[in-house]
Amino acid sequence: MKTPPVVAAAQAGEAAARIVERRRTIGDPYLDEFIAAGHDPRELIRVALKRYRGLPDWVAQADVDDVLVLHVRQWWEWAVDDLAVLEHAERLLMNRREVGERLNLGSGQAIVDRIRARRRQRAALRGEPDPAELADVPPQQEDRTAAQQRWLDTHLDALDRARAAVLEHKDLGSDEAYESLLDVAAEPWSPATMTLMSYAAFDLRQTPAVAALSDDHPLHAALDEWTALAEQYRSVG
């Protein structure tokens, strides 16, 4: 089954406004229901599907078009919620097979695959780079990538220590920094992980609350440790 096209929040808001305005235009006796539901896409969908009898064809058909816009937006938001639940289960170290049984998924690997797919969908919804594309490497860079991976494999303890030190202070970051750090919290070290971790550290540094910390705050030391490792990594190959 193909993934539906992304519907931005603004597009969904415009679709909801069109539904209400059409009902206002025709003097719909149930207009108050539509106005009351206008702030909740799911409720507006329910009202539109319920109050369809006796409508002019142009109104009924236009409502369906806009309800579909709202419906697809709800699907994308559900995908993000699905990811949030699965990532929370991962943070709690729950058994993947047992979690998968709730979703009719047959293996722990299926959970991993679903998380990866949902992360790509979340990135698409937010207009961010596809996480999978960050890992794509042109053929001419294969030798350098192999050297970088060897460096990563021989510095796992230092990388894990630096990441853990930064993660201890993730609550100080903006929502974007917090979520970016969670994205890489349990990822194995690879060139893609290094890229994502660098983005997350940059977002964390840009957060006003972090910038206002005293120079001797432990987070600054953690970020400096990470920066030193990242610079060593970038010099490889």
From TrEMBL:
It comes from the Bacteria. Residues 123-143 are annotated as: Disordered. This is Uncharacterized protein.
